[in-house]
Amino acid sequence: MTISQASDITTPTLDLIKHGLSHARTVNADQELYNQIKNSGDEKTQLKKVATEFESIFITKMLEAMDKTVDREENGLFGDDHQYEDTFKSIVFQQMGRDLANNPRTTFGFADQIYRQMEHLVKG
User: Within the chain, which residues score under 50 in pLDDT?
Assistant: First the structure.
C-alpha cells in the first residue's frame, strides 16, 4: 500500500477495522477461557469454574445495567464523552465481576448454587 492509498482510508473504515480487531480479541479471550476450563481437570472442577464464570458474567451485566442509570450531567472520568470511556468501563466491569465472583467473601453465591444443583450430573 502506498502513502497515497493509505490516505484514502476514511475514518469510518478505520472504525470498522478497530471494531474487527476488538471483536477478534474478544473471540480469542473467550476461546482462551474455554481452553483453560476444558484443561482444568475432572468434570467437577470444570463445572465449578463454569459456574463461577457464569456468576462473573451476571455481575458484569448487572454493573453495566447499573451504570446506565447514573445521571451524566457532570463530566465523566475522562471529560466530555471521551471515545475510550465505554471500552475502559467495559474492561473494569468485567474485571470487577470476576473478582467479586471468585472471592468467597464477596460472591453472590450463584456459582455455589449452580454447582450444588448440577454436581450429581457430572463425573468426579
Answer: 1-7
Q: What is the pLDDT of residues 45-73, one digit of tens each?
A: 888 988 999 999 999 999 999 888 877 66
Contact 45, 119 (CB under 8 A): no
Looking at the fold, whether 55 and 105 belong to one and the same domain comes out as: yes
Cell 451485566 locates to 61
pLDDT of res. 86: 77
Region of residue 16 (phi > 0: left; psi between -120 and 50: alpha; otherwise: beta): alpha
Whole-number Å distance between alpha carbons of 119 and 100: 22
Helix/strand/coil for 76: strand
Cβ atoms of residues 76 and 70 within 8 Å: no
- Closest by CA to 87, choosing from 54, 73, 95, is 95
CA atoms of 124 and 95, how far apart (whole Å) = 30
**75 shares its domain with 109:** yes
Q: In this structure, are 57 and 96 located in the same domain? A: yes
Structural domain of 14: 10-39
